[in-house]
Amino acid sequence: MTDELHLLADALTADYVNGRWKPEATEEHRARILSAQASTDAGLDGLAAGGVLSTESIEQMLRPHPELSSWRLAPVLRAYPDGSPDAQALVRELLDAIAVAGFPLLPPRTLRYVEAPARHDGDAVSIFLGGGITGCPNW
Q1: Count of domains in the chain?
Q2: DSSP class of 42
Q3: Residue 122 and residue 110 in contact, taking contact as beta carbons nearer than 8 Å
Q4: Quick one: which of 92, 105, 133, 137 is 20 to 30 A from 51 by CA?
Q5: Containing structural domain, residue 53
Q6: Measured in whole angstroms, how far is the alpha carbon of residue 87 from the centre of its chain?
Q7: Mean pLDDT, the chain, as a whole number?
Q8: Arithmetic mean of pLDDT, 46-65
Q9: Does 79 or 106 have the greater pLDDT score?
């Protein structure tokens, strides 16, 4: 069964990735704070690298603010503590993406497309976006 957090995080992530939603400036700023607070190595990759997003950090992010009612991140963060580990991981990845995107001075990342059966031979972060279908060669 898909939990509330998973549904909220999926929708918000899809909107963010497809350019249908951009966090407000204060929302983006607080996402950066959450990412930095959760960092295991004092860098911006903390959430994705296993950092912890604490209930206290979330409560601090959601403290009263005049624009809180318009923040799309607010319902996601409210649902975070009760969400499944997979849904929580999706939220952490979204917050990290927002945090990194908020720093225009960072060098652009070079993306490389690798299609099976070619091998990924780099040490950069990789994402697997597909899978085998009956009758295909063994990857």
Answers
A1: 1
A2: S
A3: no
A4: 105
A5: 4-101
A6: 10
A7: 76
A8: 72
A9: 79
